[in-house]
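CORE FACILITY INTAKE
Project code: CF-77B
Contact: R.S. (postdoc)
Sample description: multi-component assembly, two entities in total
Requested service: structural model of the whole complex
Turnaround: standard
Below are the sequence entries exactly as provided by the requester. Do not edit them.
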Amino acid sequence: MAAPRLSLLATERRRDPAAIAELRGLIRTLERGSIFAGTASAGGPSSIPLGLAALDRVLPAGGLALGALHEVVCASPAGADAGAGAGFAVALVARLLAGGMAGPVLWCLSTAARRELGEPYAPGLAGFGLDPGRLLFARARRDAEVLWAMREGLGCARLAVVIGETETAPDLAASRRLQLAAGASGVTALLVSRRAAGTVPSAALTRWRVAAAPSAVSVAVEGPSAPRWRVVLERCRGGVPGEWLLEWRHETGGFALAAALPDRSAEPAQTRLAG
Amino acid sequence: MVALNGAAETAGVRPGQTLSDARAIEPRLGVEPSELAAEAAALEALATWCSRYTPWVALDRAGFGAGLWLDVTGCAALCGGETALLDDLLRRLALFGFAAKAALADTPGAAWALARYGNGGVVSVGETRARLASLPIAALRLGTAEIEALDRVGLRCIGDLYRLPRGALARRFGTTLGRRLDQALGVAHEPLSPARAIAPYRVERLFAEPVASLEAVHATTRALLEALAIRLEADGRGVRRLELMLFKVDGAVDERMVGTSLAVREPRHLMRLVVEKLADLDIGFGVDAITLAAPLTDKLPRVQLGLDFDDAGPRRADAAEDEAALGQLIDRLGNRLGPESVNRPAPRQSHLPERAVISAGALEPSADWSAHAMRERPLRLLPRPEPIEVIAPIPDDPPVMFRWRRAVHRIRAATGPERLSPEWWRAAGIDAADSGESRFRDYYRVEDETGRRFWLFRLGAFRPGSSPAWFMHGLSG
């Protein structure tokens, strides 16, 4: 719908610096998905706070933007952090639903994801704070089908969130298609890749790199206590990257800050894989 | 002898004879063993192919000279008349290499008689009696004993029976004779049982020239879907299952099925589902007929979009549209991934974790999970428990180290055991010991040094002298 407008502007006033600035602005709003906000999610909020000031402060919309693509990348190239990344993604979805998003959650998985990580297990998800009654599973065979199912899901404005799990992050074209579909329908997309594979350019609004982190040892709780993740906000369009040690509290269904980490921008080569 | 070719028949061989008798008559006889299963399959394939003329195709498997019945009532106009239909049928069968005879009459019995004992062709309405008169008695589908009995008293033609009193015939030769005669003449009704269920909604397109392009098939299918939608809308119904049949020039029939989760009528949505199913279509030498049937339909009220202006109206329409949009999404996903691949979880009462969740239909109302939330359960459950090597210092203590998928994990924190007993009445698989008794599982939630969380269990009680079996069953965030 917006593409013809772009080309029209481009051919008519190619050399006009003002027009170029206008075009850049248009591309920015397009890629952010906000150009569609008026049609798709009229009246609704454009973002949902994650409920932790440290996170919401750096996110441009004061929370996780709706109608956009967000990426979760598991930090280990060998896939050892796949469980942690999947857990963090579940936490994000739980926050989105707690924030008042209506409609089902479409969860697209490949055969490999189910073999490596297992099927999403409803009683455990319920205990974690995500209502399995909202879930709809689409079991695909290959990653290409996962991306296809996600795009189909993002075309249905009735859904709240579409989660997809792939082996590695998809290419720029695939992520751009997802971002555009999410922007058009107002449905939020979450793409989890089990293995980190270099830095793939992406059209996603945010990219979170997640690694498992040891939980707090306490005398009061026998065994593992609240799960922790070392989370790096690698990429955040219009926001500030950052790094946190997050803890998930089942009781409240919210994030907590386990410990502050040094500012990443000061030390670019900050250790990201602790443990 | 089951079937003969023309040369053998000329030589005097008859069906039903033994091989040695036949060889005595004609020593040069070539013999092939009959394959009943293959013949039945071929007849069924032919019946499917014949559904290009009418959905109402019945198999006549009885004995020698199997055949097909086609109820073409109201269908002949599509082919340009009854004679044209019969000619077209025989011409195509000849192309496939079948030697066939066909007759078209008022009753199945008369058509059967004329195709086998007469000259075939079309019998005009009301002519049946006269056309049957000269045919042999055997044309009435009678048993050998009855035919011989009639022959002994000199009754050889069907016409001979017309004059005789019915009561006497029945007393002498049984009731079958009278019934067959009435059926052939149309006095008694004889229903045909179709080989496949008759779809209440069916549209078709026969091509004068075969089409060989996928685009043409698509265009025709779209037109058929639109025609179907008009008929469905008139009745306030929508499709739940759609059956597309493509009749290829070489006689093969390609069938594609599409299922929907909600009743649908919209041609655009159905077309998307069909196109997906046609992706691997091999047109071959061309397609000369396409039929589209809806064997399963459901109520779907007529909707008037944008005409509802009262207070509750637009919002209600929105909700219905929402539901339809979700149904269409599920159809598209199910159509490509398989209908059973799209579902939602539902709780089930069971002690075993892998049995505590079942898959429910994607559009079923969502289950209430509040009573089934368990913090001590993992977020992911492996399709089946995977054996692991474990080091546990004291048999009943949590493990300190384990190896899973070639990686060693040192355990930093553990809690357990949580003992789960298999339901004794369904003990099987890993829960059944060699002795057949079922074994409980002791589950531990553990976290390794890097913070990864696992759910593993030991099978059965510790027994001195044997090392217990450990399994990985789930992962947590």
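Facility notes:
- Residues 439 and 460 of chain B are 5 Å apart (CA to CA).
- DSSP finds 13 helices and 16 strands in chain B.
Invoice: internal transfer
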